[in-house]
């Protein structure tokens, strides 16, 4: 199996967009000094600058930039003196090490990586790679196991410390990813491993089944156990398919990408059954956790259930997940089930860790004072949702502080702040993080890197009711005033929208359905709220903290149901780039037809391209 895996392992590695050869460690746990030096020289790309000096550079996550200079372990001047190098630590961007000797540059970089490892170890691990074990048999037997133990009335046992049946998995590796770039690197690393190792192995050896049977604990003192887990093996395991070596290779893969600091000789593969960290205070309305961890006595459990059989499941996927997520899916599931097939979805618990969720809100209401103090001087565009202007809405510009001053008055009920480039204005303000599902974003990566305008927005608006009188009878009809007209997103791009606070109602139509709604002039309806039900559609209520994924070409209309602030991105990647290209070509042809009668006029080509640009 080891030889089989070795033959499948990649011979190249990507670091910050550059490809390097990989020299393999011949045997786990046995690294010679020559191997170590060779591997360092391969992994560290060393170039020559314009002054003829050698240098190496690597991207430093923003979270590390300030901490690196203040770290006690790193005496920058001493390190520069001992290695005869110059080290430039940025406020953001690439760290650069310059010197005369390649070996000294490697030595300095090793020391910095060691220090960065210390910083990473101090960061709470929030991400992990796992193998799902959600067969019906395993879930049912786990539920029986849980019910039996709770029925035994063991001291310290509580329902809250059991794993959720819908989140059962085998943990492979746990790590702390510091920013969106590292999240993207992790998803790429996982996809590479599946493409180059797991998938070819399954094609060669056939589908594999995992058996979950027998329980164990992390510590030897059975009277004080915090984590109880089940063991996993491959059914009919052989030299062609060895589960332990498979996950060892996966751990190596993440280690080689620099995403995991510690090299594991042997991954402890396990399916967590009980973790006392999950314990909630009984009868607490908010289900708060205990302040101090309370262990359980697992002596009777081990005696009675040591060989408990949970069941079998197929080994057909590996997930990159977020610790503590509820209602979330893995990136692989999102990619395969929604992004690639171009289908919408709602992902829960996206904004809970954002700074905006704590600083912009006071108990779920908008913190007007904080927003005004920090962003009040910004120029913003306000849409009047009661004043239609062609197929859009009339706009006005003002200071954000002025918009906030009117918050709560009758006039503000129809005012909607949209398309605010707040992140582009305050580049160092980390008020949100791009969810890993949406991290592969060619459009904004290109625009931001080239100092151009972006497609990252903040939306903010209220909700209200309208009343109208019909003869002597009063009909009170709730109309959602703050709305966007019926549309598809710019360039036929993907979009995602996450609610920092508030709720929205969405109506979405699959690509092509909008054609049946066009009038004789080929225009789309401005408002589809009264006539949409006859066509196939989806209707969604998006709650606070949730993100909705809107695929390419899905026309939609949106209403605010409450005071709402959301972060929105338009984005493009390999899954929808052709949709974008076709949309641009169609738009160009449409504009050309519209001004065809002006072809002989002076300046036709200039006006043609000007009109094409403004239409998109």
UniProtKB/TrEMBL annotation:
The organism that produces this protein has a lineage beginning with: Eukaryota, Metazoa, Ecdysozoa, Arthropoda, Hexapoda
Q: Which residues form the JmjC domain?
A: 423-588
Database matches in InterPro entries: AKAP7-like_phosphoesterase (IPR019510), Cupin_8 (IPR041667), JmjC_dom (IPR003347), JMJD6_ArgDemeth/LysHydrox (IPR050910)
**What does the sequence similarity comment in the record state about its family?**
Belongs to the JMJD6 family.
Matches recorded under SMART domains: JmjC
**What is this protein called in UniProt?**
Jumonji domain-containing protein 4
Could you tell me one molecular function GO term of this UniProt entry? Answer: 2-oxoglutarate-dependent dioxygenase activity
Tell me which species this is from: Tenebrio molitor
Recorded hits in Gene3D superfamilies, A to Z, give: Cupin, Cyclic phosphodiesterase
Q: Which reaction does it catalyse?
A: L-lysyl-[protein] + 2-oxoglutarate + O2 = 4-hydroxy-L-lysyl-[protein] + succinate + CO2
Q: By its UniProt entry, which Pfam families does this protein fall under?
A: AKAP7_NLS, Cupin_8
Question: Which Gene Ontology terms describe the biological processes this protein takes part in?
Answer: positive regulation of translational termination
Q: Write down the superkingdom of origin.
A: Eukaryota
Q: Which PROSITE patterns match?
A: JMJC (PS51184)
